[in-house]
Specification:
2 copies of one chain form a homodimer. In chain A, 41% of the residues lie in helices and 15% in strands. By secondary structure, chain A is of the alpha/beta class. The first copy, chain A, has a 6-stranded parallel sheet with strand order 2-1-3-4-5-11, sandwiched between helices. A 4-stranded parallel sheet of chain A has the order 7-6-8-9, with helices on both faces. In chain A, helix 1 crosses helix 2 (16-23), helix 1 packs across helix 3 and helix 8 packs parallel to helix 9. Chain A starts with a helix and ends in a 14-residue tail after the last strand. At the A-B interface, helix 4, helix 5, strand 2, helix 6 and helix 11 of A face helix 4, helix 5, strand 2, helix 6 and helix 11 of B. Chain A binds a DNA duplex through residues 2, 4-6, 14-18, 20-21, 24, 26-30, 33, 48-49, 51-58.
Chain lengths: 342, 342
DNA sequence: ATGTGATTCGAAAGCGATTTCGGCATCGTG
DNA sequence: CACGATGCCGAAATCGCTTTCGAATCACAT
């Protein structure tokens, strides 16, 4: 069915080896024969079969992408979808395809690492997984080139969003508008979360605001419902916060609707902050004040690091890309209500 | 580096063939040796290499996914991301991995079909492409099993959302609330669009509403900005509509903010309808009345059809899955304002 | 003993490519 | 004219696995 190298060799009366070498730009092929080979290849629609080539060369031009699976939201998470999209585009530019890595393929109980070997991927991008899981650690510690996003392993390349600075900027913005009772609803345990909490603390102290333990609440990323619940709890405190920073934009949406249920106007009665900078923040009323993470750049950078590591195993070291996050003021964080100023 | 079948054969003193046959459940292997092979395989961490197996059997257990690329929004489109997510999960259950198919891989100008052959995919799911493009037609007409989503080719399996019924239900909902000046802002040319327009017309006529040409406007899917612009145009008409149905939920968001800019309350002054049933519709104020498309089920069904076709090439015919869409009432479509009733 | 059938295993070819190494012209040079 | 150098190409091994077909063994009936 498919046209193979044999067809090309037969058609131009050359050996298989010669055709192969013509395709791989070997020096011992004359310009004319190289031209002949390429021409006839084009005529009969020949492309070297990636599978056969991989078997022989051990280079698949295929990259693995590891997405979290414990929670359902893999691809549907807009931030990670953007990262993946950019990663994919950049990979394609360099001739790499991508495949998802998982650990429940078929009946077999393959680990992530085993799945990678099974498919012969040249490298893996760990996008959003539980970085503390044994299986992930095993993969990262293996000889397969790895790049991680939003988590740093020693001796491996990674791309990080500037979470500390981003969070500090958000707190500074709120403080500049007079807020001193600032609450932070954070997501689950992860590097990202730790860094944002650090940024939150630093932001507070830089503006001489002392931290109230009740104002730090754990919630779940990307869950409007959990976000709404957190807001209800906070507003039920004896002295509720005047500004609530949420783990992400979807949670902020949940916060907005919780506020409405409570009869509170945003930002007149309470201010709400988001994180991520997803498109929806610009379409809500009020527009959500958020911190934009440059997902496109993160995905692109990850691809560049990974491919560099694959193609230049000696020279390429483990790089760490810090991608700046930018405050995007909306209307959901406003001046502190006067009766609340202290 | 990697452990091969040879290692297993050496370790248990059996030939390579025997090990292979033990793994593939051949009948001429005794229960004891089969057990021995599996045990030692487990001990030294052996998994058959997918690449080598593919080369020999011409079955890659790899499925291609074709996403639109002309516009940037591939993975970031929430509806398609959901479809893909479900497709992926179902495939993994059956032991298939998935790879993205595109036509600008590296420097080579491969067509979609060539890319599929290059990677030896067992089948392809065309999710959101320009179904009229020559390249796509070529792929669909080839011998590679194909399933399409939201577009039907003769003699190929497909999964369709019930767009006509969905749209009719939406119109009926608006009509029941007294609306007779109903506008429809539709997306670009595509089967989906045609069907929804058909549903729109039918809905109107079923309720004895005559169609006003100015009330049918073309916009772009998933573009709040374009949606907002369409709303501005509609509301500038001599007799503006009382209810505007948008191509999707994101566009509906754009419509909401356009209405706000115009000083119109939703739904008191004008009603807005969405489509898709994405999560955000439940978190806006007002909540958006929309039609839920069961993206999960669509993706799952596509995977089932495709794998069936691959694994049972004789018996499996070309199936057509119609997935019902369901009206999800929110608050953005309300009763017609009294001064507008005619 | 011999033949028969069932059971279990191994040798070897081959999937489509890459890559080493050697062969054969051709050519310049002493 | 001989000889080594150079340029160009092909034979064959190989990657890790599947699968056909024949061989070996054993039991059992003849």
């Amino acid at each position: 069915m498919a046209v193979t190298i044999k067809d090309v060799s037969a058609r131009c009366g050359l050996s298989i080896s010669t055709v192969s070498k013509a395709f791989n730009n070997y020096a011992d092929i004359s310009a004319e024969t190289r031209e002949l080979v390429h021409r006839t290849a084009r005529e009969i629609g020949y492309y070297p079969n990636a599978i056969a080539r991989t078997l022989k060369t051990n280079r698949s031009y295929n990259l693995g992408v590891l997405f979290q699976e414990e929670r359902g939201t893999g691809l549907t998470h807009s931030f990670f979808a953007s990262v993946l999209d950019a990663f994919k585009s950049e990979c394609e530019k360099h001739g790499y395809d991508i495949t998802f890595i998982n650990h429940n393929i078929g009946w077999t109980g393959m680990t992530y690492l085993e799945h990678c070997r099974y498919r012969n991927v040249d490298g893996v991008c760990v996008v959003c997984a539980n970085f503390y899981a044994a299986e992930v650690v095993e993969l990262v510690a293996s000889d397969i080139p790895v790049v991680t996003i939003d988590h740093a392993f020693s001796n491996r390349s990674c791309v990080l969003s500037e979470n500390i600075e981003g969070m500090k900027a958000l707190v500074a913005h709120a403080a500049a508008l007079g807020h001193r009772r600032i609450a932070y609803v954070h997501g689950e345990h992860a590097s990202v979360t730790e860094n944002r909490i650090t940024g939150f603390y630093r932001g507070l102290s830089e503006h001489g605001i002392e931290h109230v333990p009740e104002y730090l609440l754990e919630s779940v990323y990307d869950s409007p419902e959990a976000g709404a619940e957190a807001v209800r709890k906070l507003m039920a405190l004896p002295t509720p916060p005047t500004c609530i920073l949420m783990p992400d934009d979807h949670s902020a949406l949940g916060a907005l609707s919780a506020a409405k249920e409570l009869g509170l106007r945003v930002p007149e009665d309470v201010s709400i902050g988001g994180y991520d900078g997803s498109r929806i923040t610009q379409m809500t009323q009020p527009r959500i004040t958020t911190v934009v993470q440059d997902a496109q750049r993160m995905g692109r950078q990850a691809a560049i690091y990974l491919i560099d590591r694959i193609e230049n195993p000696r020279t390429a070291g483990s790089e760490m890309g810090l991608i700046p996050a930018m405050l995007q003021p909306g209307e959901s964080i406003g001046p502190v209500p006067s009766q609340h100023q202290d």
